[in-house]
Every structure is written in structure tokens, then in C-alpha cells.
Amino acid sequence: MRISIDRNLPAIPTDFSWQLGLGNDHAYQLHRTDVCAHIKLAHEELGIKYIRCHGVLDDDMLTYQRMGDCRMFAAVPFKNKIEEINFRQVGHVYDNLLQCGVKPFVEISFMPSALAKGRKLGLRYNPNITMPKSLTAWGEYIQKLIRFLLGRYGSEEVESWYFEIWNEPDLSCFFAGSQKDYFKLYEATVRAIKEVDPNLRVGGPSTSACLWLEEFLAYCKERDVPCDFVSTHHYPGDAFGNFISLRNVKQMFGAAMDAVQNHRTLSEAMTKMFFLPEDFIRWDKGTLAKMDDEAKAKVGDKPLFITEWNSMAVFGSPVHDEKYSAAFAVKSCMDLSNTLAGYMFWCCSDVFEEQFMLPQPFVGSFGIVSNDGIPKPNFWGFKLLSQLYPKRLKLPMRTNEPVEYAAFVDGDKTQILIFAQDQDYHKNETHGITIEVNCEAKKATVQRIDDTHCNPKAEWIKLGSPDHLTRAQVEQIKEKTRLQAEPLPFTTDRGVTKLSVRLHTNDVVLITLT
């Protein structure tokens, strides 16, 4: 393959909307020093500005306590009438985020049991996902939360945050109600927020698969409900709730039986149940960009945030720990066209308990930093993106060819980002690339993400795949798998620089000419 870069082409601003923020499991985890360290690393190394997490109002945050919540007071008469609202732990979590250098992208979720209409729980950490018994009482509670935040941080700070109502209310594992119920909940919540401070930014519907956008905006328009931004999520295939076939169900049950019969670990069983690489092949390459365009067309002039995305929505998938995810992240960000207000990858840390807290260092969790604090290939993919020059040459994009590239300029300096992203997990083609740029470079370097660069999982396997790494082993893996700029041979002749590289499927390289 031959790449010819004309530095005289028109340029557009490089799209850095992915730097707006990351997701990070649920709020209670943000009391942990290791999780905060992972977030601080993402802020300092990648330029991440906001963190969004689930469950800031869950029972484990103790915002609404009743005497009857403690078993030792079971015999006390009228025990559930003795209650107290206290947002101290919310403040501690948001203090931690601010100390890490990021701001909260506040997800208002889930329902305190004291206010809940029902008892349905979701996920591993048992959030109550039902409607409130009283929207009036819920609104009063929300107003107390907002007054607490304004009192603790000041209006100037809190008005720089975003307030997103709930998470994926279209999925039964996150919301035990209908679309109509969610719209009522949204309305009651944002009216309560705006009554306290009309300058706070509110939005939704935070759905999966870019669903409900037109219906949501129609509801807000018809009832004059505040909506400062629109948020939604997307993943290839969009996994459970949106993409379950009979074959998938058979796979899950068969893998479960196999795990019992062969005494497999929970980690092994999860991967066998949900990791289906044969499904990946039939997902269209560049599918997220198509969904972005369709969603933006639906929301019009409203700021649109994709507050979750990843290479797939399935926990326990090896791809999350491998170069596959890095190539997918780079491809998805290179397909952006400066139309989104934020493009927030899910998620930052592998310390993650929506399903299970699995023990091994690499278990296919969603994060860009392992549970030992080791940057994964997708972290380094974002690191490459963070280094890009501010102007992108207007070359063909979204070609969806086996190898794609983009070029960036800053004065006399040039960068060429090349990525061989493919949905086929098992494909391993080799691509020889020759490059010509109409400049006389004095120096050329290359940074790589491939099987031998930025691959901490491979180093862990070399150590015998231990369930637990020592601190020394963690530091050893970090040192061996840092992103490195290596010299790249080149020639110059009559104002043209020539060089070449080789890539395998799902490799990423960034070449810099100075």
C-alpha cells in the first residue's frame, strides 16, 4: 500500500471530543485510592476532563437512611419513620474526583430504597432501579442534593458540571419502568434541579443503542421540559437487551454446563459464555460513526454526548485487554467529524463490579487501566490520539479499508496515524506500507501498538499468568509496555521524505516527522 501526503491540502480541526470524559463503574468505588489513581493517570496522561459513574444515590452511598435499615433496630416501632438525608459520601466522592483533576459528569441514579416504589434491584451491587413512590418527594430530595453541591463547591464550579438523568432506562437491568415512566422521572428531576439553579445543565435520556431520542425531545418540547443536552450510548451489536439470539442463549447455557462439569473458574465461565468472536465479523466496520451521524441528525442543534461506547458491551471479552480494543478506539475517534459535544469511552478502571470482581490481572473488563494500575493497549491508543497535532489534513476518511490513515500538521511538523482495524478477532494479515510526504524531514520516529509493543497481557502470560501480581511484577510490566518513540529510517530527495512500515491486523502506528 502506498500513502502520499500533501501537506498543502486544506485542514480541519482535529477532533478531541473523546477527551471530554470517561465512565467509571459506580460511585462507591470512587472512595478507593487505587481507582482514584487510575482516574488521575487518565487525566494527566490523556487529558480527560470529566468522569461519569453510576449509582451516586444508591443505598451504599447512605444518602437517605432510616432507623429500620439497621437490623438491630428491627423491633423499634415506626422505625422507618425515623430518617435522615445526608450527602456526605457524595461530597467525598466528588472531592476525590476534583482532587484527581477532573469534574463530575453527574449521572442522577439510582433510587434510594427509602424513596423507591418497588424493590427490584439491578447489577451486582444491588441498586434499586424502580420509580419513586412520590415524584414530589423525589423532587424535594433532588433539590436537597443540589443545594448541598452548591453549598460545598459554589455555583461557578457546579454550573460547569453536567447533570444526566439515569442510565439506560430502556434496559430492564437498569430501569424497572416504561418509556413514559422515564419521561415523567426526567421531568420531575430536571424541574427540581432548575428550580434551585436554572444555570445547571441537564439532559438525557442516556439510552442504549441511541434509542428514544426523537420521542424524548418531542416530550420535552410538548411539555416545555428543560433539556440542555442529549445523551445516549452505543456499542457494536449493543449486546444484551438489544441483541440476543437463540444461538447466543444456547452458547451461554452450554458454557455454564461446561463450567460445572469441568470445574472452570468464574472468569473462564464468563468468557466462554459471552465472548463470541464469530459475531464480531458481521458487525459493520465503522458502525459507531453511522450511529453518531443518525443520532446527531435526530437531535439537531442540541449538544449530543455519547456517554458510553467501547469495542463491545460484553464483560469478560479478551479484546478489552488486547490491541483489538486500541485499534477500535483509534478507528472510532478518527471517524469523528467535530459534531459531538463529548465522546466518553466506557470506562477508566478495571476495578469494576457490575457483574463480578474477577481476580486475575486481565479478565476482559472494560477499562483502559488494569486493576493493578497497568495501562492497557486502549490506554495507549488514547495516548497516541492525545499527541495529535491540532490540524488534520482533509484526506479521505471513513474509508473502512483494511488499512486507514490520517495526517496532522503543526507548522513544519507532520504526523501520519495508520491503523489496520478489523472486526475479525482471528484475522492476522500483514500490510506493507510505503509513505511519501512533500517535506524534507530531519527526524522520523514511530510509536507502535501491536503484539510486541504496549501489550501488558503478553508480559503477564510470560510470567505464567499468575492470579496476583507482586508490586515488582506490576512495575516490570509497566516499564516494558510503555509507549515508546523509536527512530524510523527514512530518505529525503528533492523535497520529498520517503519511509515504510509494516502492520498486522489491528496494529496502530503513529509516525512523526520533524
Description:
The chain is an alpha/beta fold and 514 residues long. It contains 14 helices and 21 strands. It has helices spanning 33-46, 88-99, 135-153, 155-158, 179-196, 213-223, 246-261, 266-274, 277-280, 287-299, 323-334, 377-386, 456-462, 471-480, and strands spanning 2-5, 11-13, 21-26, 50-54, 64-66, 83-85, 103-108, 162-165, 201-207, 229-234, 304-309, 342-343, 391-393, 404-410, 413-419, 430-437, 444-449, 486-487, 491-493, 496-504, 508-513. It starts with a strand and ends with a strand.
Offer a concise description of the structure.
This protein is 31% helix and 21% strand. With 514 residues, it is an alpha/beta fold.
Q: Find the CATH topology of the largest domain.
A: TIM Barrel
* Count of distinct structural domains: 2
CATH class group of the largest domain: Alpha Beta
* Uncertain regions spanning at least 5 consecutive residues: none
Features:
single chain; 514 residues; alpha/beta; Immunoglobulin-like; TIM Barrel; 2 domains; eight-stranded parallel sheet; seven-stranded antiparallel sheet; 14 helices; 31% helix
What topology does this entry show?
Blueprint: E1 2-5, E2 11-13, E3 21-26, H1 33-46, E4 50-54, E5 64-66, E6 83-85, H2 88-99, E7 103-108, H3 135-153, H4 155-158, E8 162-165, H5 179-196, E9 201-207, H6 213-223, E10 229-234, H7 246-261, H8 266-274, H9 277-280, H10 287-299, E11 304-309, H11 323-334, E12 342-343, H12 377-386, E13 391-393, E14 404-410, E15 413-419, E16 430-437, E17 444-449, H13 456-462, H14 471-480, E18 486-487, E19 491-493, E20 496-504, E21 508-513
